[in-house]
Amino acid sequence: MGLLSKKDSKLISDPLLDNNPITIQVLGICSALAITAELKASIVMSISVLFVLGVGNVVISLMRNIIPSKIRIIVQLVVVAALVIIVDQVLKAYAYELSKTLSVFVGLIITNCIIMGRFEAFALGNGPWRSFLDGIGNAAGYGFILILVGFFRELLGSGTLLGFPVLGDPIEKTGLYSIGYENNGFMLLSPMALIVVGLIIWVQRSRNKALIED
Amino acid sequence: MSLKSKLHDLKEKYKGKKMAPAFNALHTFLYLPNEVTHNGTHIKAADDLKRTMNTVIMALVPCLIFGMYNAGYQHYLAQGMIESANGFLGASFWTIDNLLIGAWTILPLVAVSYGVGLAVEFLFAVIKGHEVEEGYLVTGMLVPLIVPVDIPLWMLAVAVIFGVVIGKEVFGGTGMNILNPALTIRAFLFFAYPTWMSGDKVWVHGAVERDQMIAAGQSNLDAISGETILGSYAQNSTVAYDYWDMFWGLIPGSVGETSKFLIIIGALFLIFTKIGSWRIMLSTVVGALVMGLIFNGVVDAGIITDSSKFYGLMSVPFWQHLIIGSILFGAVFMATDPVTASQTNKGKWIYGFLIGFISIMIRVFNPAYPEGVFLAILLMNVFAPTIDHYVVQGNVKKRMKRLKVKAA
């Protein structure tokens, strides 16, 4: 890769798979279970976290030498809260329906462990460019799992993708429904999201035995 | 060359290969293997896992056969084609017509349950390289008995795969599971396809189709009656069955749970053969009665009047809770599962009591679906190890105290 050195590109590729924030570090599970019933909500949530974590990491990294270490958590909270409010307002202005679906979970990005975790673990000790890459990488790893879970839950639970009926019409009995197929209501409930995440973790670790810890 | 020696040769041929457990399982299931160990001391015991499982299956067979007759009986009765059979030996109940249509709908459920479940078991045995375990034998028999007759077969297959993989294999297979696999399968069906698991249409064979025909004006029947007794009570409407119907089991319901009489026979068989724990069965019944008495007391005290939506189920006489719904089936065949139940004797009393208690509580307070036995048992499955822990700790404490007294 011409643009990024090998070390830098690892910052992005690692959190996507082998050090994924959700499936390996098991962080940010709460929102992964709550808002993945629809693919659209998962995508918007992923973009929001991508923005907050990317920008937040840069801001913290720029301020890392002037933040007194005793109050660094408060400073981090102020930064992430400011960014989340921006996201929240933008969603309310341009995608009101969606912001109602996501409801409190946009605000709860503040408490998402992944964000504070990256601030603490990476941005406080690295330069802005590398922090930016790290933020983008981790948010992408988070978003990748979110979208994967959202894809299966919406497809099997509602028979739609992004709101489009891909399997036919359940009321008119067309497409797959004409042969007796029915939507799986369990998929729309949060416990099934936990099971789907669990299955992803299972598949990932059985493909790469090095990830299994005792 | 007989099948036995063929299987033996296949076993030898595949020894050490990935497919070996599958042939081993077939061989030992069908025949006594030829291999004889020559040294070491051996204890010959007949009560191995297979024998235990088969005993439970024998206790379940009467329920299954009765379920077939009942499916046909409810089917013809709902269409007004036969008279109501008064009592267990009623002439219009034990007819060949009833059995044929019942077997035609229920045997596929049994076949799918066993076929899919054992396929998953074999697959996991081959992948993980261990012997096929017998754990699914009872589960496979229980599953068709606790679902509505007309459940689509593909739904059952999906649920069985889910139940065996998520309920059992992820925990490490037979003997390691936290939740009862059969109930996991039922819970999955209930939450995934609620229209097929509750309501007043699904309990009688063919009722869903007849309802559609009536709606389309293609049938000369007026209405559908297929409400379970619990459903009637939950809607504060009158119940069309008398107590003896409920006891003998001539009522709509899941396939195998309607006949309280045959369940009690099965229970006695399990207690006599010492396979099922009488402590759990008895304490579950006691728990249900206590909760029923509390609700009766609440009604008698005038706290709940007949304007309340809970009045119907709360005012059911406490003993009657035992003969409606599936509390007895759950107590005898589900709660006693030795893997998921409490292991200590004191723990079994607590575990069973809470199952009965919570079952009736959910039954009365759940507006969407007036039966809670499977939810209560699954909940207590989760708590069984905790109960055991405190029982054992309590015993340790008691003995420590005794030790101190002696030392002093």
Explain briefly what this protein structure is.
The complex is a heterodimer of chains A (214) and B (408). By secondary structure, chain A is mainly α.
Overview of this protein structure:
The complex is a heterodimer of chains A (214) and B (408). Chain A has 214 residues and is an all-alpha fold. Chain A is built from nine helices and two strands, in the order H-H-H-H-H-H-H-H-E-E-H. Chain A is globular, with a radius of gyration of 19 Å. In chain A, a hairpin with a 2-residue loop joins strand 1 and strand 2 (164-165). Chain A has one domain. With 408 residues, chain B is mostly helical. Chain B has two domains: 50-275, no CATH class; 277-408, no CATH class. Chain B has helices at 3-13, 20-30, 49-78, 96-128, 136-145, 153-167, 181-192, 194-197, 207-215, 229-234, 243-248, 260-272, 278-300, 311-314, 327-334, 345-365, 373-407. Chain B starts with a helix and ends with a helix. At the A-B interface, helix 9 of A face helix 6, helix 7 and helix 8 of B.
Residue share in β-strands of chain B: under 5%
From the alpha carbons, calculate the radius of gyration of chain A and give it in angstroms.
19 Å
In oligomeric terms, what are we looking at?
A: heterodimer
Reading the helices and strands of chain A in chain order gives HHHHHHHHEEH
